[in-house]
Amino acid sequence: MLIRFKKGKNQHKHRPDTLTCIRDDGSVTWTQIHRGFVQHDFAHYVVETTLGFQNAFFGLVAKGYDIPDFSLPTSKRSFKIPAEAMKVEPIVALLQAELWESFPDPLLQPDSSELPANATTEQIEAMRQHLRKLLQQWQNLMPGESMDLQFDMLGEK
């Protein structure tokens, strides 16, 4: 699945950032991204691809879920968010918090209860570095420009 992040041309005149996912079957889902929320989506991408989650946000979108449906109230959503997707949220939050705040020790450690038991120090550092790199690429974009990421389900190329 191709994931396209596009920087809005003018946040204040209703041309916000957008997130578009083009699935392997050619179907498309997209949404406007609220200001500053792109960091959260990048963190999801990094966590899901590094740790191999297949049933979290981008994995579910690749399987056919539509992005806007995730923000619907539970009673109006046509699906239940899987447990795996719920496990990813605290990892994403901790990864983001490490970038925003100054902590004496990193929040994510291999023995962190939020991480899968088999997570390694190398994976954690790779997530940190990849997120920083994506955020720098985003910052370097001019309004109207986009950046593409590839999300592959396990066993697919």
Characteristic terms for this protein:
157 residues, alpha+beta, four-stranded antiparallel sheet, 4 helices, globular
Could you give the order of strands across the largest sheet? 3-2-1-4
> Secondary-structure element order, as H and E?
EEEHHHHE
Q: Given the C-alpha coordinates, what overall shape results?
A: globular
Number of helical elements: 4
What does this structure look like?
The longest helix is centred in the C-terminal third of the chain and has 20 residues, at 121-140. The protein has a four-stranded antiparallel sheet with strand order 3-2-1-4, with no helix packed on it. With 157 residues, the protein is of the alpha+beta class. Helix 1 packs across helix 3 and helix 1 runs antiparallel to helix 4. It contains four helices and four strands. Helices cover 37% and strands 14% of the residues. It has helices spanning 38-51, 57-62, 83-100, 121-140, and strands at residues 2-6, 17-22, 28-33, 146-150. The chain is globular, with a radius of gyration of 16 Å. The chain has a domain at 35-142. The chain starts with a strand and ends in a 7-residue tail after the last strand.
